């Protein structure tokens, strides 16, 4: 539950591609907010351009007390608070600090909804190794995992982004 006195961080689900608009609207209401953005080089058929994109699409973070709950929800583009068991789920200050530090250091962040553990059977879903199956050996970081590929009766260790993997049944 959102407390009366101590402001805590919460994730707010916003309309697709509205992260910057909601961020600006919340700041105008003097609500502490954070929308993690990262510069990425985008390429079109006729040009390349550096653009700021949300690291976590359709979400912004707010640090609020109970009295700011409804002003956040009533902000144009806001859909709902991320909840657990029917209550808005708070995010520890340390997690927001870590996310800010990663972005400030220009560490490229990729978000994946897949949860992989050592020993899981995985398949490479895209990239030059598409279709190869293997076993997850370990997580090197939040960005890379190490997998063993057992094709051609040889074992290869490959470091790859988790966003390129899917679960495999064998």
Distance linking N and C termini: 43 Å
As for the number of domains, it is 2
Largest beta sheet, briefly?
5 strands, antiparallel
Supply the helix-strand structural class. alpha+beta
Q: Strand percentage, roughly?
A: 35-45%
Q: Which segments are poorly predicted (pLDDT under 50) over 5 or more consecutive residues?
A: none
Global mean pLDDT: 81
Q: What percent of the residues sit in helical stretches (DSSP H or I)? A: 10-25%
Global outline: globular
CATH class of the largest domain: Alpha Beta
- The radius of gyration is 20 Å
CATH homology superfamily of the largest domain: NusG, N-terminal domain
- Helical stretch tally: 3
Here the CATH topology of the largest domain equals Alpha-Beta Plaits
H-E order? EHEEEEHEEEEHEEEEE
Q: How many strand segments?
A: 14
Provide the CATH architecture of the largest domain: 2-Layer Sandwich
Description of the structure:
The chain is of the alpha+beta class and 170 residues long. The chain folds into two domains: 97 residues, Alpha-Beta Plaits, CATH 3.30.70.940; 47 residues, SH3 type barrels, CATH 2.30.30.30. The protein contains three helices and 14 strands. β11 and β12 form a beta hairpin. The longest helix has 12 residues. The mean pLDDT is 81.
